[in-house]
Amino acid sequence: MKCIIYKILLLLSFNVLANDYVTYQTNDNATFKRLAIEQDLPYKETTLIIEQADTVWKQWNSFFGKGEKWVAATDANEIFLWNEWYGAELLVDFDDAVGTEYINHATSCSSGTRISEKNIDLEINDFVYRNVIRLDFHSICDGGGLASVWFAPKVGVIQWLETYPGYSLMAEYYTLISANIDQVDYPLETKLTFSSEFPKPFLSVSTKNLNVETQLINESDLDLTIYYSNGQEFEIELLTMDNISIQKWSDDVRFLLGEHEIILKRGEMRNFGGSLDLQKNDVSLSTGQYKVRMTLLGSLENNIDASQILYSAESIINLR
Predict the structure, then answer these.
(1) Residues 6+ positions from 18 with CB-CB distance below 8 Å
(2) Dihedral of CA 69/109/157/104: which sign?
């Protein structure tokens, strides 16, 4: 009876409005597949289901393959586990710094946890999760048991690592392949659509300007960040049919040298475009065919070595 009273009192002290990393509700589910290291094991899937819940606590049917567990996620970005012997124990506070350790009994083979990495990118099954946190577990079973768990914002658990006592080369990763969490399906789809408007195909050789516009729409399931290595976000170029550059929109434009980024909200549309001045003194055009190329610069990866071209399209014009 004392344990029950203690639990109720403890629950009343929690504020559970929201948690940045774990948002599971009743009937939410996440399916993981096993990836064995240095082993020849059959394909295996395991599904985490939130079977029941009250205002604070959620019952996970499978706590990283270790059986049922009651878990509470607070709006202070904390995760608590309920242990019938020790009561509520703090598994992790996602706001703490790398290196922070916690004493808990999350599994029968662990004596605590430690934040080992924060704000990392983790690619799982061709989808990149951002701002991921890795939580390591201190083993008391000769190095075996649950070793690490990776959490992504709003998605929750996206991967965990299981090791075996005394076998350094034997390990199993369980990676997220699909989920429905808070009425959102994962992995989220990244989809950008582009449409460009080029000059008419037949123009007079005395044409003064070539106007090109491109519309970019974020049709993804999430907001997207586009990273730029400098201030230039697009390029318009006039070329010969042999791809020899004649004129660029950027020739007379000065750009900031520093990196920058823009956030394209889900469903947001953004226009890019400009004009080429064909009457400039250094531009001399004769009748014939030319190419007009529109390129959207930038990358969805915050990596200087990543390709800096999001989209490129071209059209042929005939000057006569």
Answers:
(1) 75
(2) positive
